[in-house]
Amino acid sequence: MESAKPLPLMNAAMLLRALFRRPRRTPGVPTPRTVFRLDAIDPAEVRRYRQALGFRDEGIPLTYYYLLAQRAQLATMLEAAFPFRLPGIVHTENTLRLETAPQPGQPLQLTTAVAIRPPAESGAVYAVLDTAGSQDGATLFTCRSTYLVVRGKRDGHGRHRPTDAARPALATWQLAHGSGRAYARVSGDWNPIHLWGWSARLMGMKRPIIHGMHTLARACAELEDATDRPVRLLEARFKAPAALGSELALDATPGDGAFAVRCGGRVVAEGHFELGAG
Hints:
The protein is α+β, with helices and mostly antiparallel strands and 278 residues long. It has helices at 12-20, 43-53, 64-77, 179-187, 197-202, 212-227; strands at residues 5-6, 33-38, 90-98, 108-116, 125-135, 138-150, 171-174, 231-238, 247-253, 258-263, 266-275.
């Protein structure tokens, strides 16, 4: 394996670094590229994740790999060459793809690169982080996370766009008021906007909201339960927040691979999926 640093944990120390990090805007400095090493995937951690998110079977769910990629991506954004503040950035899109079956007990290398898109007409700026997880030189999974790092001006267009009529739900689930904390315990993501009412208000939110990747993981678990096949690809756009205590409904068509997760009459996440062999 290429020389790599140990993959850091998601914990309070990393959260504090993210909250208080000051970006350095140095012209001409390339965006960071990092290489981290994980000695092995912890089967007990995977088991806790499956149980918390509703996955039935043994094995590693596709969305679990995001937890590894997230650790690498956050550490990458903490590098001095990343030119944006982390508080207030918004996870807008995510793509996960499983390339090959993992080798149990074997080390992983996680390589992450950053690309900053040119500003949109509104002034919005997005950062795209691509992480590839590999074992013995073979790619195991890829994860692309897109973040809104500079908010643009709102022009009012698209706020009331008509949406397609909701199909009968493939599955529904209720978000417990403690579900943000429950997800934090298995993911390490203790972002205050997901935890309690008071902590969300400190961050400018009226109510605590569920992690977008919790929503995507629950959708993945329900798709696998309904089709009795593993999900090998998930492409998602996060459209709106879902408050803790809400009921979510999954609309999906296994034939065309389209899915949407709704909260009330509003789409909170939508995208595309592909299934593997049964």
